[in-house]
Design goal:
Helix content is 65%, strand content 0%. The chain has 320 residues and is mainly alpha-helical.
Length: 320
């Protein structure tokens, strides 16, 4: 058998194509980083390398080195009173902090992180149980339910937005911050469950049933089999589903802009960035710095669990 070597031009062309695709995907982030590190006088500089590094936007967004207005002498004497608690001192000093033009990035970041992690984790739990029932358990109406789950994707979010909001209002959930937060978690779970169930269901079918039978013979119940056998062998699929659900919640804007409109303290990063862009404090270095910091959690998440994004964990597990 003759093995033909790839021609030089073919290999070079393929390499150039890959490099071009990578540069096309990475260039917007490089431009964002460059703009976030430039001073206002340097924005017109077409070079991606700033003449002078500007970290003020990052310090401002991360609340590093916030300046204080002059505290009156009378107020200073009050602060020197040893009977004041630390909380009372912080409350008094907060009134003299320069916060008029500061974007509350950390608050929006915390809201997005909590909402995304909780909704992704709950969606993953429900998806594991649902996908296992679709792939392993036989019961009447299983096929209809499995296909009916995908019914959610037949309608765009804009079509079901108003009915869902009216439902939340009539149920009394939209009248409180806690109820609204719970509603957002449920909405993000519903958005991600169809794909999560489909992905995990197909992956569970690749796991030999003989392994589960052996566990049941050893005395494991159905839930113990899922926890001890299915979950450890499905880490690649579980990691993928978690990333998918996290990214949906992290970047979602439509539902958040309607349900969280009355609760500014619950704003997520997409809403916060939009409000920053249209505000009087819309400065390009600040906008780009906030955008770069918004992308960091997703990148870090990929880096932390990329070792689990591998397959073939059941290869050789059963001798046929």
């Amino acid at each position: 058998m003759v093995v033909r070597k790839k021609g030089f031009f073919r290999s070079a062309g393929f390499s150039l194509l890959v490099i071009a695709i990578v540069l096309f995907a990475v260039f917007p982030f490089i431009q964002m980083l460059s703009t976030s590190l430039k001073y206002q006088l340097d924005w017109g500089n077409p070079s991606l390398i700033p003449r002078k590094i500007n970290l003020e936007s990052y310090k401002e967004l991360l609340s590093i080195g916030q300046s204080m207005r002059d505290v009156p002498e009378s107020v200073q004497r009050v602060l020197d009173n040893p009977k004041l608690t630390a909380e009372q001192r912080r409350t008094i000093l907060k009134k003299y902090q320069q916060t008029g033009d500061i974007f509350p990035f950390l608050k929006y970041f915390r809201n997005s992180m909590v909402l995304s992690v909780v909704s992704a984790f709950l969606a993953l739990i429900v998806a594991v149980l649902g996908a296992y029932s679709f792939s392993r358990v036989r019961y009447r109406g299983r096929s209809a339910i499995q296909r009916g789950v995908l019914f959610v994707y037949m309608f765009g979010g804009i079509l079901i937005l108003i009915p869902l909001y009216q439902l939340a209002v009539r149920a009394g959930l939209a009248s409180t911050p806690t109820g609204t937060f719970i509603t957002m978690i449920v909405l993000y779970m519903v958005q991600t469950l169809p794909v999560s169930l489909y992905m995990l269901g197909n992956y569970f079918r690749t796991i030999p049933f003989s392994i589960e039978e052996a566990a049941m013979i050893d005395g494991c119940s159905r839930f113990e089999t899922i926890w001890r056998i299915i979950v450890p062998l499905s880490l690649p699929a579980l990691a993928t589903v978690f990333i998918y659900a996290f990214m949906i919640a992290w970047n979602e804007y439509l539902f958040a802009s309607v349900f969280l409109k009355s609760y500014k303290n619950l704003y997520t990063l997409p809403i916060g960035l939009k409000s920053l862009f249209v505000s009087k404090n819309a400065i390009w270095d600040r906008i780009m710095a906030a955008s770069m910091l918004t992308a960091v959690p997703v990148v870090v998440l990929f880096m932390l669990i990329q070792k689990n994004l591998v397959g073939g964990l059941t290869a050789g597990g059963v001798k046929e």
